Amino acid sequence: MSTFLYKIGKTAYNKPWHFIIAWIAILGVVGAFIGINGIHTSSEMKIKGTEAQRVLDQLVEELPQASGGQASVVFTAPKGERLDTPERIQAVTKAIQDVYGIEYVINPIEAAAAAGATAADANQAGAAAAGSQQASDTNQTASAAQPQYGPLIVDGNPVPGVMISGDGNVALFQFQFTVQQMSLPQEVIDKVVKSVTAVEQVNLGIKALPSDTLVGKPAIGATEGIGIVVAAVVLFITLGSVVAAGLPLVTALLGVGISIGGAYSLSKFIPMTDITPALAMMVGLAVGIDYSLFIVNRQRRMILDQGLSAREAASRAVGTAGSAVFFAGLTVIIALCGMVVMNIDFLTAMALVAAASVFINVLVALTLLPALLGLVGERICSDKARKNNKEQVKAARQGMAHRWANGVVNRRWLLIIGVIVILGVAAIPAAKMKLGMPSGDTANLDTAARQSYDAISAGFGEGYNSPLLLVAEPSSSSDKITPEVLGKLVQAIQKHDDVSIVTPMGINQTGDIGIISVIPKSGPTDEATSNLVQDLRAKDSGISQSNNVTIGVTGFTAINIDMSAKLAEVFPLYIGIILILSLIILLLVFRSIIVPVKATIGFLLSIVATFGITTAVFQWGWLHAWFGFDTGGPLLSFMPIMVSGILYGLAMDYQVFLVSSMREAYVHGHKGTSSVVEGYQQASRVVVAAAIIMVSVFAGFILTEDIMLKQIGFALTIGILIDAFFVRMALVPAIMAVFGDKAWSFPKWLDRIVPNLDVEGDKLIAELKAAANFKDTKDLKKAAPSRAH
Predict the structure, then answer these.
(1) Whether pTM exceeds 0.85
(2) Which of 23, 190, 498, 531 has the smallest number of Cβ neighbours within 10 A?
(3) Quick one: which H or E segment has residue 100?
(4) Percent of the chain's residues with pLDDT above 70
(5) Which helix H or strand E contains 470, and what residues bound it?
C-alpha cells in the first residue's frame, strides 16, 4: 500500500497540472449535471415496514383522498378579545377561502358536492373533518378536562375546517392536501402561508400562526463558516505557514463541493432529505481538512528533521501518512455504510452521501494535495522554519507533550480509573434517553411553530397537536364495515382514558375500510400517546375483538412514534456490525489483538458519555440558553445511529494516527513505555490540531436554527472532545503503557494469514534504501575505471 501511494504522490508532484485540471473538470461536470437535473430534496423520513407507513401506503392505494397530508393554522386575537367579530370573521374567512382555492388543497365543500351531498351536508362534513364536537353521543363526548370549543359559525353555518375556542380568542383552521407534505412543491406551502398571514395586514390585531408542518427548515448560514475560520487559525498555528495552512482548506472545500454537488445532481433520481447534504458537508469538511493536515505535516517533518527535498518528502508523506489516511477513511466509510443493512431509505441516503464525501476527500488528499504541493515546491517550509527547527525539536523534547506522556505513563492506573469514572458519570443520563422527532412543542418560544402549538394547546387541548388517523378493516373477509359498526367502534374508542375526541370520517364504497379521526388528550411526544397507539393497534384488545375489526393507526404522530421505535430497535444491531468490521480493519492495520480491542472499548466509553451529556442538555434542558434553544425534548430519533457511525470512524482516525506513531517508534527500536512516549510526542501535536479542527467544524452547526443539525452538531462536538482528549490522548497511552511490548504481540498462525499492509511504510523505506544503495554501488563502479587511469 505505502509503495503504491508513494508512486502516486511522486507522479502528482511531478505533473501537478494533470491532476489539478482533472479535479477541476470533475467539479465542472458535477455543476453541469446540477444545471441539467436541478436540485430535488424533501423532508420525507419514512421507514418501510412500520405499521404506520403500511397503513398510509394502503390508504394511498385504496383511498387516496384520505391519505394526503394535514396542516393547520391558528388565528389569534389580542389577549382578552374575540375573533368572532364581524370584521375579524370576514378577514379570517377570506384567508380560508384563499387557501381552499390553492392547488393541492382539498376544499371539503367541493369534495362533498362531488360526492352528491347537499351544501349543508358539505359544511357538516367539513366541520367533522376538523374534529369539531357534534351533539350526537355516537360521534364523541366532550371531556370536562378539555377546554370548551366548537365550530366557527357564520350566517348560521359552520365554516369548513374551522373551530373556535370557548373564549373566542383562538381559531383553529385544519385542512388537508391531496398528497403528503413531502411531495408538495415548495411554492404551494409558500402560497398557503402567504394567504393566511394576509389577515395580519388588515390592522385588526389578528395573528396567523402556521403549524410546524408549514414552516420551512432554516438554511445553512454563516454560523457554519465560524468553524472554518477557527480551523484556518489552528492550521496556521500547527503548520506555521499561510501557504501550508491554506492547502488543507482548499482541498477540503473542493472535495466537499464535488461530493455535495454530486449528491444534488443525482437527487432527481435518488430520494434525498434536506438534511442529507448538510450532514455530508459537516463530515466532509472535518475529515477533508484533517486528512490533508496529516500529510502536509508529515511532509514538513521529513523536510525539517531528515533534510529531504520537498519532492521526496511529499512522495514519502503520501506513502506513509497517506496509508494511515486511507485506512482511517476506510473505517469512517465502513461505519457509515453499515447503516445500509438496516434498510431504512432516508438513513441509507444520508449514510451513502456522507460516505461518498469521505471517499472523495480521501482521493483528493492522496492525489490533488501532492499536486498542489508540487506547485508550492520548497516554499512549503520557509527558511526561517528550517533555521529554527533544531531549537524547536529540542524544545519539544522537553515540551508539554513530552511531560504529559511521561506523566500518563508514570500514573497510568490512576488515569485509567479516573477517565472511566468521569465518563461513567457523564453517561448516566443516557439511561433516560427518549427518542422522537422535532415538533412544535420543542421549537423556540419566538417561532410561529411554537406559538401555534401553545395556542392550540390552550384553546383546544394538547391532543390537537397529535391527531391520529385510524383505518378499520373487518377481521373476516365475509364481514363489512357498516355505519352501525363504525358508530359502535367510535363509542368504544371514545372510552379510552387518553382519547379526547373521536370522529368518523367515512367508509369506502366496498365497505372494506372505515376511517376514523382520533384526538388524544396527550401531546405528540408524550408516552401516553405512544401507549394509546399501541392499545388501538392491539389485536387482542376489547376494542378490536368486540367489534370484530382490525385497526391500523397512521398520521404524522404515529409515523414518528414508529420511526423512533424502529430506530431504537436496530441500533444495537448497527453497533455490532460496525464494531466487528472495524475490528477487522484495525487488526489488519496494527497486526495486534490488544490494540483493536482497546480502541473499541475506548469508543464505547466515548459514545455512552456523549449520549449522556446530549440527553442532559437537549432532553433535560441543562444549559439550554448556551446552545440557542428554549425547551428540552426527545432526542432526534436517528441521531444515535448517525452520530455513532460518524464518531466511530473519526475516533479510529485518531487511533490510527496516534498508535501507528507508537508502533513506528516500537519498530525502530523504542521498547516498553519508551515507544509510548516517543510515539505520543511525534503524533500528539497534529492529532490535537485535528481534533480542534473537527470540533470547530461541528460546533459551527450548533449555532444553526435547525434543531436536527443543532443536536447532531452538538453530539459530534462533545463526542470528539471526549474521544480525542479523554480516550485517545489519555486513556490510550495509559493502557499502552500497562501492556508495554505485549501490546504488539500477534499469534504466529494469525501472522501468516493476515496480509501485511505496511501502514507505517517500513517496506517502502527499505525499498528506498535498497534503491539508494544500488545507485551508490553503480556510481562507484562507474567511477572505478577513471580512478584506475
Answers:
(1) no
(2) 190
(3) helix 86-100
(4) 87
(5) strand 468-474
